Amino acid sequence: MANPASANMNAVRETMDVLLEISRLLNTGLDMESLSICVRLCEQGINPEALSSVIKELRRASDSLKASENSTSQG
Amino acid sequence: MAALDQKSPNVLLQSLCCKITGKSEADVAHQFQYAVRVIGSNYAPTIERDEFLVSEKIKKELLKQRREADAALFSELHRKLQTQGVLKHRWSILYLLLSLCEDPRKPSNRVPVCSYGALLAQALPRDVHSTPFYYARPQSLPLSYPERSATAHNSSMATSGISSMGVFSINGPGPTPPSLLTGLQPVGESMRGSRLAWTLPVSSSPSGAGAAPRPTSAPSSSPAPRLPQRQRRDGDGSAEIGEAALVRDILYVFQGIDGKFIKMCSPENCYKIDLKVPLCKSLRDTSSRLAELGWLHNKIRKYTDSHSLDRAFGLVGQSFCAALHQELKEYYRLLSVLHAQLQVEDDQGVNVSVDSSLTLRRLLVWTYDPKVRLKTLAALVDYCQGRKGGELATAVHAYGKTGDPHMRALIQHILGLVSHPILNFLYRWIYDGELEDTYHEFFVASDPTVKTDRLWHDKYSLRKSMIPSFITMDQARKVLLIGKSINFLHQVCHDRTPPGKIMPASKSTDSPKDATELFTDLEGAFQSKIDAAYFETSKYLLDVLNKNYQLLEHLQAMRRYLLLGQGDFIRHLMDLLKPELVRAATTLYQHNLTGILETAVRATNAQFDSPEILKRLDVRLLEVSPGDTGWDVFSLDYHVEGPIATVFTRECMSHYLRVFNFLWRAKRMEYILTDIWKGQMCNAKLLKSMPELSGVLHQCHVLASEMVHFIHQMQYYITFEVLECSWDELWNKVQQAQDLDHIIAAHDVFLDTIISRCLLDVNNRSLLNQLRAVFDQIIEFQNAQDTLYRSALEELQLRVQFEDKKRQRVEMGEWGVTAEQEAEENRRVQEFKDTIPKMCSQLRLLTHFYQGIVQEFLRLLMTCSDESLQFLSFRLDFNEHYKARDPRLRPSLGATRGRRSSNI
């Protein structure tokens, strides 16, 4: 029982490594954790188009927040 | 990780939000809400679910960034990914990564810092629409005034004055490069502007610009004072319309719906931009180029709408409409993607990345392929107007002959759909013999009024116009023949073998795709399928005809009885019939003759024929005209019905009757001449005692032998040159025949040959008349000789009686003759002798006439082109007896020889 489970874990890990590598190649800026969340979401059949726009949006929001913090700290 | 697997998308999303923004769950409530909304509203992807496509796109992207090594690396990784079966939606993850991809060499365009104000406002997306946020669009400015555009930009910012000052003040000094700025604005902002513009009447003159002349599409004259005003008017909505507005309009036009500015111009039958709308020329051009798509769409749509409900248009037409619909659906899918894009841009407002915004130019590129497709379809629709069934398939097929592989694939696809019903008809027809062609689309037509006896000949025919061009005439004929054979078996032969048994090849249900393959690959499967069906069905039909209906036996029976092949029977029949037939035709009764016929059959070898054949043999009396004897009206008949009547049709039987009459007549001449000869031989000795007759008798002998020669040669010609040769040919052909049509054709050829060689056709009318005259002379000669012999024999008998009486009286001791008796006897002998010259002259006259007729016959034979008739003329005049007598024969003979040698 344990053997197939661990083999499965290995396979998952390898897959994740490969995906991370691709992600790095494409310069997506996702770290391991966000990537794994994304993978899970995708595996649940979520529209990747929508997901990507959400991620972009979140980044924009956080960037702008930081920028505003910077500017307030400057001001 | 494993624990996370079970979590719902919402939980995952929330952790993603926390992760990316780096805040706690409570802080990201807004963002989380937004994320759920976006994901929930776009659940169905608008893109292809094709992993390969996505991976190709990634490679292209990497190559675009000039990272060939990385592209190779990616292929490697992708392959690795494919080998591990952990992921179910690989394409989806890859697509996600691709859309998050950024070119590391470019400055990050992720979020221009300058617009964070707007972003803040946008954190809750439902607020987006309420944000008034627009300014003049640089690209709507005339291109020839770049330096002014800059000032205009500023001035418009200064004057547009609707609550967006703050934004621009942030925007202005910001570090955003101008290129980015211009690239950023077109869709989101201008969209908003145009949306606002839509709410205002376009044509209404702006109050603020009352002093300025109305802007036109050609701003070259006095541009300087107008420019700022035009920019300002953008806000009012009455000046030049924005590109985004046009894009929106165009998207409607694509579906054949009139837009706000671009409308269908019915007199010119094209989409036109309202001339009153101020617009720069390049945009106007681009939009009208794009609008063509709408026109093409309308055209196709009109065709499908008008035809898809028309039942009489038939199945082929319906599938053509379906194919067009399929293409249109594809096109609508594209439109919906474009609309979704527009929607997304609307929703996201300002922050749309430059790459994905919709512009006319982009549309031009994206719609290039669909346009080519629609163009082809529209041309096809034009060409197919008014066609249906096989004709329609021909039309579509004609369009497939193009060098463009894409077009060819498109047409091939449509052709596959269009020809599918035809293929169904075809299979039903060749495997079941059923014609389910309610709308007369198939190339086999059936005439329901035709009765079964003419089924083979008349019931089914080819509709030439409905034969699709990818089916050759030969194939079409074979297809017709196959179904016809099956129907013939069912309806005429009453053969109830299920079609599956005839055909070992099982019929397959072919999909439209197979249809295309079959029709394009003419050498291969389709041809062999038809050939196999043709071969099997025809073979089966011939087997049934030969075994159950004894076609070949009947053929031979025709030869034996109607063409006088059974010599002993014919001779015996003639012997028996002779006393009957010399009587007048009106006194003949069919039942008497039938009895005689049966007697003849019983007495000869004919009795060994199968009863099936003998019971069909019958006597027939032709129409009687006054003065006819039995010989003129008697005829044998052969009853044909059922399946063999298809080969022995009524015309065939009438031909047979004509030939029989001719042969019967010729046979009778032979018979008469035999009688003449017999008479001569019997009487020659008796009449030796009458030396005064020797001259007349000699004349008789000469004429008789002349006639015997003629008739013998004639009989030889008929038997060997005509009947046997043609029969042999027919028999060979029948043995090799592959289908019933071959047999029928061979039989027809056989009859035609016999008719023409027996001089019965129209061309040889004069020859036949001469021949008839010869026959008449023979009959006349028979009569003359009969009279001669009768009187001669009478005379002989009287003389013998006289001599006997003389001898008796001498024995009784009286005077043999008295002077009185002697004188009486001498007077009688003298009287008889006086009739001899009369007989002589009669015979001479007969001979003269006869020879004249024969010479005329020979002369006509000379002019014939038929080889065998030429030979006949040589045979008839082998010692040039007639040629020596008739100078007319010589030049014509020379001429024919010359002609023949020149032919060779």
From TrEMBL, chain A:
<dbReference type="InterPro" id="IPR022214">
    <property type="entry name" value="MZT1"/>
</dbReference>
<dbReference type="GO" id="GO:0005813">
    <property type="term" value="C:centrosome"/>
</dbReference>
<dbReference type="GO" id="GO:0051415">
    <property type="term" value="P:microtubule nucleation by interphase microtubule organizing center"/>
</dbReference>
<dbReference type="GO" id="GO:0000931">
    <property type="term" value="C:gamma-tubulin ring complex"/>
</dbReference>
<keyword id="KW-0963">Cytoplasm</keyword>
<comment type="similarity">
    <text>Belongs to the MOZART1 family.</text>
</comment>
<dbReference type="Pfam" id="PF12554">
    <property type="entry name" value="MOZART1"/>
</dbReference>
<dbReference type="GO" id="GO:0033566">
    <property type="term" value="P:gamma-tubulin complex localization"/>
</dbReference>
<dbReference type="GO" id="GO:0090307">
    <property type="term" value="P:mitotic spindle assembly"/>
</dbReference>
<keyword id="KW-0206">Cytoskeleton</keyword>
<dbReference type="GO" id="GO:0005819">
    <property type="term" value="C:spindle"/>
</dbReference>
<protein>
    <recommendedName>
        <fullName>Mitotic-spindle organizing protein 1</fullName>
    </recommendedName>
</protein>
<dbReference type="GO" id="GO:0031021">
    <property type="term" value="C:interphase microtubule organizing center"/>
</dbReference>
Automatic annotation (TrEMBL), chain B:
<feature type="domain" description="Gamma tubulin complex component C-terminal">
    <location>
        <begin position="551"/>
        <end position="882"/>
    </location>
</feature>
<dbReference type="Pfam" id="PF17681">
    <property type="entry name" value="GCP_N_terminal"/>
</dbReference>
<dbReference type="InterPro" id="IPR042241">
    <property type="entry name" value="GCP_C_sf"/>
</dbReference>
<dbReference type="GO" id="GO:0051011">
    <property type="term" value="F:microtubule minus-end binding"/>
</dbReference>
<dbReference type="GO" id="GO:0031122">
    <property type="term" value="P:cytoplasmic microtubule organization"/>
</dbReference>
<dbReference type="GO" id="GO:0051321">
    <property type="term" value="P:meiotic cell cycle"/>
</dbReference>
<feature type="domain" description="Gamma tubulin complex component protein N-terminal">
    <location>
        <begin position="247"/>
        <end position="547"/>
    </location>
</feature>
<dbReference type="GO" id="GO:0000922">
    <property type="term" value="C:spindle pole"/>
</dbReference>
<keyword id="KW-0206">Cytoskeleton</keyword>
<keyword id="KW-0493">Microtubule</keyword>
<dbReference type="GO" id="GO:0051225">
    <property type="term" value="P:spindle assembly"/>
</dbReference>
<dbReference type="Pfam" id="PF04130">
    <property type="entry name" value="GCP_C_terminal"/>
</dbReference>
<dbReference type="InterPro" id="IPR040457">
    <property type="entry name" value="GCP_C"/>
</dbReference>
<dbReference type="GO" id="GO:0007020">
    <property type="term" value="P:microtubule nucleation"/>
</dbReference>
<dbReference type="GO" id="GO:0005874">
    <property type="term" value="C:microtubule"/>
</dbReference>
<protein>
    <recommendedName>
        <fullName>Gamma-tubulin complex component</fullName>
    </recommendedName>
</protein>
<dbReference type="GO" id="GO:0043015">
    <property type="term" value="F:gamma-tubulin binding"/>
</dbReference>
<feature type="region of interest" description="Disordered">
    <location>
        <begin position="202"/>
        <end position="239"/>
    </location>
</feature>
<dbReference type="InterPro" id="IPR007259">
    <property type="entry name" value="GCP"/>
</dbReference>
<feature type="compositionally biased region" description="Low complexity">
    <location>
        <begin position="202"/>
        <end position="228"/>
    </location>
</feature>
<comment type="similarity">
    <text>Belongs to the TUBGCP family.</text>
</comment>
<dbReference type="GO" id="GO:0000278">
    <property type="term" value="P:mitotic cell cycle"/>
</dbReference>
